[in-house]
Design goal:
The protein is built from three helices and two strands. It is an alpha+beta fold.
Length: 102
């Protein structure tokens, strides 16, 4: 295992950006990373700003997950996309399959 290193260049090389709004002050960050281990296995890692409590880190993870969930019309939940990782968009022209067509 190597010593911890700042993530700035790594994050920059992956194309991650944030454009703060006027007056916005970033107070902390949680970074989730998908990594390939030396043996080829894929795993997840996280790093965070010093001073963030575990509760703040968990809250930031939860907020990010909620932000990334696809918007579904009311009463039209189709979890196949989430379950399989395959997009089902466009199956019947409007992006939503009828339940009896599964």
């Amino acid at each position: 295992m190597t010593d911890p290193q700042p993530l700035g260049r790594l994050i920059d090389s992956l194309g991650v950006e944030h454009r703060p709004e006027e007056g916005e002050l970033v107070l902390g960050a949680v970074v989730l990373m998908k990594v390939m281990e030396a043996d080829g296995r894929i795993s997840m890692r996280s790093a965070w700003s010093p001073g963030l409590s575990w509760m703040e880190r968990v809250g930031m993870h939860q907020a990010a997950a909620q932000t990334d969930l696809p918007v579904r019309p009311s009463g039209q939940w189709d979890t196949r996309e989430l379950d399989s990782g395959v997009s089902v968009e466009g199956m019947d022209g409007d992006g939503w399959d009828e339940p009896d067509q599964r």
